[in-house]
Amino acid sequence: MFTMSEADVINCTISHEIHQYLFSCVYILVLLVGVPSNLYSLYHAALQLKQKNELGVYLMNLTVSDLLYLASLPLWLQYIFQDDDWRHREWLCQLCGFLLYENIYISIGFLCCISLDRYLAVVHPLRFTSLRSMNAAWLVSGIIWLKEIAVGVVFFRHKELSKDRKNQSVCFEHYPMQPWEYPVNYYRFTIGFMFPLAILSISYLCVLRAVGRSAGTQPVQKIRIRQLVSSTILIFLVCFSPYHVFLLVRTLLERDCSFIAGIFNYYHLSLLLTTLNCVADPALYCFVSESARRGLYRAIIRPFARVLCCCCRRGNSSPANPATDSHEVATDENNV
To answer: Which of 13, 172, 6, 168 has the alpha carbon at shortest distance from 87?
Structure first.
């Protein structure tokens, strides 16, 4: 148990209905898909490390970050099912919040590393070889982790549990924002989002141009390189851009409860999109290793596709054509 002063009470009363319905469904889906796919990705990252592929270092760190965040989702689910009332110790709230933001910015960091690594491999294949070594990859990975851990210390210095007007303990939500959050949010937007966006965009355009001009690269390799760099920037834009846009809007304009009530659902929807990063990241392995692509399809995608097909058949009043369905599955396997 813990005690709070009047200053710790949230000033604005906000409806959390979006958490009860949408968040719980998405979190459960992310757990069901994200845990097995990331564990499988971790195995293939280890294979890349055995082959002395520096790309495997970045992919492994990305997967570890996703798994750490996925480990916190059961506590967030319990928090949601208890009507946004945190009933654990405050340090657990701080840890879960830290893992949430750690996953966002460590994922962004390693997506940048993957893009830069492909840029150096494609645009400058004979230069900067020392930057594409295993030692350099581990050093860069360590710097990214240490940077985010140092930023995370900020959260552990402040109280992250607040009381709402219903006397419930709210975790990692301040309405309105606390004064110490403003500089942190500006740092997140500029260094954590805009700077990586510039790196991703420039490396993406340079890689596409270099691949298009290359006469020695096989067509299959060109396609795989394009898919890898396109996937990194797509994951970045879909999962992280909306959140940082609304984060900046809140930081600049949030002054009263009416504004907070109007933006609350949009802001939390954008935060929910960052969770999908845990499901999207394993797809990157499909463009690094052919065996990883086949294995991920057989272990994760095909079983879920079969479950969905069964659900659709049961919901359909007209009988399905089993011959056609089996033909489609056989065709998919041949295309893998």
So the answer is: 168
